What does this fold into?
Amino acid sequence: MNDMPKCFVTEVPALVFDEVSFTHRGQRLLGPLDLRLEGCRRTLVMGPNGAGKSLLMRLAHGLLTSSSGRLRWEGPTPRQAMVFQRPVMLKRSALANLTYALAVNDTPRSRRRLLAREALERFGLAALEKRPARVLSGGEQQRLALARAWLTRPEVLFLDEPTSALDPAAIKAVEDAVLEFHAAGTRIVMSSHDLHQARRLADDVVLLNAGRLIEHTDAATFFTVPSSREARAFIRGELVL
Amino acid sequence: MPADANAFQTALALILGMDPVLLGIVALSLQVSLSAVLIAALLALPLGAALALWRFPGRGAVIVALNALMGLPPVVAGLTVYLLLSRAGPLGQFGLLFTPTAMVIAQVILILPIIAALTRQQIEELHGEYREQLRSLGVSRPRMIPTLLWDARFSLLTVVLAGFGRASAEVGAVMIVGGNIDGVTRVMTTAIVLETSKGNLPLALGLGLVLLGLVLLVNAAAYLVGETARRRLG
It folds into this structure.
């Protein structure tokens, strides 16, 4: 699973963090850190609660602006989507939630339903098309969020602890979906605090602790011979201090 | 027999007998208040939503002003419109004073701040929940307005109803700019005032009952719509 993946689409530009930090009300919550995310890899951002995983993802996706330092794409800004820990669904049917995303990115009206139905089918939600999105189960909503992301044909997909509130079957469905995105040529940047999940999915691992970057290494190296003391402790399942 | 019981009987007879004078007054009341609510909602819903989404200097002052105007005394609204529309006023040339149009204008001024201020609150709350997702999807702010208004539609129904309640119940503004002219600008509330002062309690009471009934009916309908939808859509 950790072999170097091929990119099926044109090379996605690298995302470079240059001394990026984020400060809120005088308190530094992240950084300053240097980081380079490139290729069509599956990057797992790991670390305990409060390590700054969500902040890192939001800065990368552009939902937050860094307080200092520079964050840049080496090339044109790619199409991106983000799947959140708790999916936010509009108060409409599952299908309407998808056609909305298509309307926003200017897909012609005549094609929206067809594309939305295809996406529902792909993520096993075809039978739920007419159901109000907000009464779906957590797992179904997360799959719907993935279907919505799929429709924007992202070159980079951010996932912020997408499985932390789900049962094993739903987790499996989300992980399968992630692999499907990846197979279609999407770079994956996903945060998680689940080591097993990281072993299953990661090409490389970014380990954060208390807002600092501890290490960024290939998954194979990270799980066998981690270079930092914190990473060794983290893998043994001890709390990083 | 006390006069009140007598008045009740007469009132019921007027209502059940579909008295044409009573019907005319009820119809005009509905026409004026519903027009005012429609116009005010069309203006105030996008305005409230925009106020929730945009940050600009003086935004706080605008919100405070709107909130304060929610309590605008109807007679003051009426007086303002009266001054604007009277022969010597800036809009006097249109000859609108003492017409139903003038009453609609006064009521729009009265309820627009209510709908706008409450919409601002509702949309700001919903936006807090949706913000990251909408930005992630690349939704522009002008585009967020219809999205958020539609997704808040059930709570906004209650907001619009609050406006309708205010419009149909107020008497000060329509009295000043309408003049309570029989068959032209006489609505339920102004008629109740007039008939009470004349001592014609049966008609006053009949009108009062109809007014109560209408408001009750509209609110019950809205409650049912809202509850069913909330249950279905989560």
In short: The first helix of chain B runs from residue 3 to 16. Chain B touches chain A at residues 129-130, 132-133, 135-139, 143, 147, 151, 153, 232-234 (CB under 8 Å). Residues 74 and 173 of chain B are 5 Å apart (CA to CA). Chain B has one domain: 19-233.
